[in-house]
Amino acid sequence: MLLQFILSGAVVGFIVGATGVGGGSLMTPLLTLLLGVPPQVAVGTDLLFAAITKSAGVRGYARSGIVPWTIPLRMAAGSVPAALATLFAIHELHPDAAAYSARYAAVVRSALGAALVLTAGALAFRAQIQSLGLRTAAAPLAAATAGTGQPLDARPGADSGRTLATIAVGTLIGVLVTVTSVGAGAIGTVALFFLYPAVPARQLVAADLAHAVPLTLIAGIGHAALGTVNGTMLLGLLLGSLPAIGFGARLSIRLPEHALRWTLVTMLLLLGLRLLWI
């Protein structure tokens, strides 16, 4: 069984290295649909797997100084309390272990399917969403400044709406990630592209990754406390994925980005629909 987990980690690691996305979006459905792992165990194990693998990327971004720390802190202000509240709710809503497992597995399967469809949509329309964010941000700059001589965005407190929206996005992602392990990557990044369209894409990717590490770690530890983490599976996934990520990253420069992205979109959409109508 360990060999299956190593191979699964290698496949997903290669895709992550080649495309930059797809870790949680592919790992959990792969474990659930192909290897027959209970959905709640796949989610819990994948959360700790994500926390470990993403931390290396965050260290690299942090050393280069490109992480805009205000953004992940805003997201964490919503996501961390949401993750803790979700874990508490999961713990409180299973008076009987057997009944809990059946009910929770069904809920996770449906939520995971919906999250995968959302992720596919976010990847497919990423450019359009970012363009919409640019138009939305440009509108007040073109408006009259009410006699202040300054653009509206330059006034004190003008960024409060964006801050609240970022916290709200973090809250949604906190719940989604805790239940499904999906959402901290593609959905979070695309949301930031809309909210912060003037920030360079590399910085937004770094911000989303910096936010994902503590979120997945907290959610993963919570799942471990609930007994929904498989240590052998986690070890196998790490052994397979870590070398495969580097290989995929090196090969990515030779692969067409457009074809890779749409292949991933199609895979996520099919997996999501399969989980929703299994």
Characteristics of this structure?
278 residues, mainly alpha, 11 helices, globular
Radius of gyration from the CA trace?
A: 19 Å
- In total, the number of strands is 0
- Give the helix proportion (percent range): over 70%
Following the backbone from N to C, one meets helices and strands in this order, namely HHHHHHHHHHH
* Secondary structure category: mainly alpha
Counting DSSP H or I runs of 4 or more residues, the number of helices is 11
Unreliable segments of 5+ consecutive residues: 143-158
The domain tally reads 1
The overall pLDDT, averaged over residues, is 80
Kindly estimate the percentage of residues that lie in beta strands according to DSSP.
Answer: under 5%
The dominant shape is: globular
Major sheet characteristics: none
* Termini Cα gap: 24 Å
What would you say this structure looks like, in words?
It is a single chain. The protein is mainly alpha-helical and 278 residues long. The protein has one domain (2-141, 153-276). The chain is built from eleven helices and no strands. It has helices spanning 2-19, 23-34, 39-64, 70-92, 97-124, 126-142, 160-180, 186-195, 201-226, 231-252, 257-276. Helix 4 packs parallel to helix 9 (201-226) and helix 6 (126-142) packs parallel to helix 8 (186-195). Residues 143-158 have low confidence and may be disordered.
